[in-house]
Amino acid sequence: MQNIFSQIKGDRAIWAIATLLAIFSFLPVYSAASNLAYVGGTGNTFSFFVKHFMHLSLGFAIMYAVHKIPYRYFKGLSMVLIPVVLVLLLITILQGSTNSQGTNTSRWIQIPIVNMSFQTSTFAAVVLMVYVARYLSKIREKSVSFKETILPLWGPVFFVLILILPANFSTTAIIFTMVMMLAFIGGYPIKYLAVIIGSGLLALVMFILVAKAFPDAMPNRVDTWMSRIENFANGEDTEEDYQIEKAKIAIATGIKPLGPGKSVQKNFLPQSSSDFIFAIIIEEYGLFGGIFLLIMYSWLLFRIVVVSQKADTTFGMLLVLGVGLPIVFQALINMAVAVELFPVTGQTLPLISSGGTSIWMTCMAIGIILSVSAKRQEIKENEVLEGDNPLDILSETI
C-alpha cells in the first residue's frame, strides 16, 4: 500500500476531493438509475451501478496516467489535437440529429469495436482550454496587436465553437465564457476582449436568424436549445418546466430527507441520474447532501487557485485555471438549473452524475492539474536535496 501511494504525485487534497465525490456518487446514481432501469430497460438497476463503477474506474486510470505526464508536453499535444478535435466535431455534426431509435446523436459519436458513445464537445473543451493557455503564456510578456492573434488564437476557438453551437448551446456558452476569463487572467488586452465578445454575440444573433429562416438546414438541436431559452424567459409551460417542477418538489422534500435510495421523484424526473442528480441528492440526503457538495466544489476551487499560484511557469498557472475552473463552473450551473436559476442545459454534475465522457474528461482535466502540482513538488524536493532549509519549504506550503 505504501508503494502505491508513493506513485501518486500532485496535490493530495485534490486527490481526496475527487475520491470523495466519486465514492459519494455511487448511492445517488444507483438510486436514481431505477427510473432508467424500469422505464427503458430490464429492471436491473445493478447493471447501472456496474456501468458507473467502470466509468469511474477508467476515469481515475486516465487521471493517474495524465498526472504522470510532465505538463510541458501538453503544449505540443494541444497543437496536435486541435485538428483532431475539429475533425471529430465535424463528423459529429454531419451524422444528423437522430438514430434508428429516434435518439439525438448530434452530440455523440459511436466508438467502433467497443460500441461506446463519446461526446466530442466535452473532449474539445479540454483540448481548447489547453491550447488557449499555451498561446496566452507565449504572448504574456509581449506586446501584440489584435490582428496578430486572430488566426493563431481566435481561429481555433471560433471553429470549435461554431461546430458545437448547433447541437449544444450550453457547452458553447461555457467554453466561450471560460476562454474569455482565461484570456483576461492571461493579460490579453481588454479592448481586444471587448471586440471578441461583441463579435461573438453578433455571430450568435446571425446564427439564430439563419436557423429561424432555414430550419431544415440545421439537422440537430437548434430548435431545442432556442425554445428552452425563449420559454425560460417568457415563463411558458413546457416539458422542461415539468422537469424543473419535479426537481423543485424533490428539493422541497429534502427539508425532511427521505434517506438513501428512497427518492420518489426519481420515478418521474427524466435524466434523474445525470442532469438532475442534485435534486435527487437533496431529496434523499437533505441539506447535508447539498452542503457537502458545495463544500467539496468550493474546496476544489480553492485548491485549483493554490496550485495555479504555485505553478513554476506562466503556462502552468494558466493551464490549471483553464482546465480547472470549468469543472467548478459546470457544477454550479447544474445546481442552478435544479433550482430554476438557469434554463435546462443538460450539463452534468462533475464526478457525481452518471455518464462516461463527462467523467473521463473531468478526470483528464484533474490529471492535468495534478501534473502541474507534481512538478512543483519535484522542484521543492530537489531544493531540499540541495541543502535548502526544510522549514522554509514547509512555510511556503502553508
From TrEMBL:
<feature type="transmembrane region" description="Helical">
    <location>
        <begin position="276"/>
        <end position="302"/>
    </location>
</feature>
<comment type="similarity">
    <text>Belongs to the SEDS family. FtsW subfamily.</text>
</comment>
<feature type="transmembrane region" description="Helical">
    <location>
        <begin position="173"/>
        <end position="190"/>
    </location>
</feature>
<keyword id="KW-0133">Cell shape</keyword>
<keyword id="KW-0812">Transmembrane</keyword>
<feature type="transmembrane region" description="Helical">
    <location>
        <begin position="12"/>
        <end position="33"/>
    </location>
</feature>
<feature type="transmembrane region" description="Helical">
    <location>
        <begin position="149"/>
        <end position="167"/>
    </location>
</feature>
<dbReference type="InterPro" id="IPR001182">
    <property type="entry name" value="FtsW/RodA"/>
</dbReference>
<protein>
    <recommendedName>
        <fullName>Probable peptidoglycan glycosyltransferase FtsW</fullName>
        <ecNumber>2.4.99.28</ecNumber>
    </recommendedName>
</protein>
<keyword id="KW-0808">Transferase</keyword>
<feature type="transmembrane region" description="Helical">
    <location>
        <begin position="45"/>
        <end position="65"/>
    </location>
</feature>
<keyword id="KW-0328">Glycosyltransferase</keyword>
<keyword id="KW-0472">Membrane</keyword>
<dbReference type="Pfam" id="PF01098">
    <property type="entry name" value="FTSW_RODA_SPOVE"/>
</dbReference>
<keyword id="KW-1133">Transmembrane helix</keyword>
<feature type="transmembrane region" description="Helical">
    <location>
        <begin position="77"/>
        <end position="96"/>
    </location>
</feature>
<feature type="transmembrane region" description="Helical">
    <location>
        <begin position="116"/>
        <end position="137"/>
    </location>
</feature>
<feature type="transmembrane region" description="Helical">
    <location>
        <begin position="314"/>
        <end position="339"/>
    </location>
</feature>
<feature type="transmembrane region" description="Helical">
    <location>
        <begin position="195"/>
        <end position="214"/>
    </location>
</feature>
<keyword id="KW-0573">Peptidoglycan synthesis</keyword>
<feature type="transmembrane region" description="Helical">
    <location>
        <begin position="351"/>
        <end position="372"/>
    </location>
</feature>
